[in-house]
Write a structure and sequence with these properties.
Blueprint (H helix, E strand, L loop, with lengths): L7 H9 L5 H21 L2 H21 L8 H20 L14 H4 L7 H20 L2 H12 L4 H8 L3 H24 L1
Length: 192
């Protein structure tokens, strides 16, 4: 069987009909995007791996129970499950996602030397980052969620709309309001 040519829906149908081997192909196809979207929200490798596994346990249970009905929308459906598990985790922890700090070894931008940075520049950059992070956490949950998914998880507005069960226009509007609110907070900070 040429699994590369089969659509996700074809593979899901084969799995539902008893071909367990196709699950590996579905996971292989989408592991990177699903895991990355989880990791960018939780910022912890082990937690991201746990949520990734929980996501596929839920996927398998749903497929086996015959409750899957997302014709042709396998990846957005799985991303929505993983996103809901991340939200559940944060509700249990009663905390918000952590942004990558400028001095985090995993932050790609901090690894690219643009110029020699003085101690003063580094302090200013870290303070700016800390201020921005604090402002993001002050945003309403729906705006913060869209901003994180768009900027940190690099999801399209279509994917964000699917994950949050809203229209693309609503997702775009939330992003616009988030950016507008951040600009207002920055202006207030400059004045004080």
């Amino acid at each position: 069987m040429k699994l590369q040519l089969d659509s996700d829906q074809d593979l899901v149908t084969l799995y539902i009909n008893g071909d367990e081997s196709v699950l590996e192909e579905l996971i292989r196809r989408h592991k990177s995007k699903i895991y990355t979207s989880i990791y960018l929200l939780v910022k912890d490798q082990y937690l991201a791996e746990d949520i990734f596994q929980d996501t596929f346990i839920k996927v398998i249970n749903t497929l086996r129970s015959g409750k899957y009905n997302e014709e042709g929308k396998f990846l957005p459906w799985v991303l929505r499950i993983s996103h809901n598990l991340v939200i559940d985790h944060f509700r249990k922890e009663k905390r918000s996602p952590v942004m990558v700090s400028a001095d985090d070894d995993n932050d790609v931008l901090s690894m690219v030397p643009i110029h020699e940075e003085s101690a003063e520049d580094r302090i200013l950059r870290n303070q700016t980052y800390t201020d921005l992070q604090a402002m993001i956490h002050l945003l309403p949950e729906d705006q913060k969620e869209v901003l994180i998914m768009r900027h940190y998880a690099d999801l399209s507005f279509k994917e964000i709309a699917d994950l949050t069960a809203v229209s693309i226009n609503t997702a775009l509007g939330r992003m616009r309001y988030a950016l507008s609110n951040l600009r207002k907070m920055m202006k207030i900070k400059e004045v004080s």
